[in-house]
Fold this protein.
Amino acid sequence: AQKVTQAQTEISVVEKEDVTLDCVYETRDTTYYLFWYKQPPSGELVFLIRRNSFDEQNEISGRYSWNFQKSTSSFNFTITASQVVDSAVYFCALSEADGGATNKLIFGTGTLLAVQP
Amino acid sequence: KAGVTQTPRYLIKTRGQQVTLSCSPISGHRSVSWYQQTPGQGLQFLFEYFSETQRNKGNFPGRFSGRQFSNSRSEMNVSTLELGDSALYLCASSFLLAGAADTQYFGPGTRLTVL
């Protein structure tokens, strides 16, 4: 069965610290997609990254980087030199390709990141 | 390009009433999905529509229903409201790639409170 686990419920760091948010997933499919979303206090989910199961290259986008490892079924997210504006709930999500029959996202429980000034 | 819009943003209803929420997808997006977010259950998939057809449905009772119009706008309806239906309802739209799970872009949500 599909499942996404974000074991870290809350993380508190001081500004400029690096922080890694963990995500572990379970799926029986060989083709699947992984996502990270950010949810600030306003409530809207903001898309950060999409990765397919065939692309294990790590990705860096400014202060954000993602480490995808199929061997450990993990898709971790690192924020370098955190800022107060990074404070939000971060969700990892999984979608199976299922031949294009669905766009359903399975979300983890989220990690609340609090960056203190 | 305008993002996903949802109306209303806030809604207060009483038990037993019914409610209709509306979602306008990003221009050109034909797939619309709905999610419910509660503190206890987290983010849960309700249903997905594409070309006015429901493609997939989550594990919710029949009181939850939806539809999609020819312009891709979507509505979801909840009948006979219960206290437990209080939640943030999020709509997401995507272009829908053939044979792949496309990126979904979310609206700001409708905060429903059932008294």
Q: What stands out?
A: Chain B has a mean pLDDT of 94. DSSP finds no helices and eleven strands in chain B.
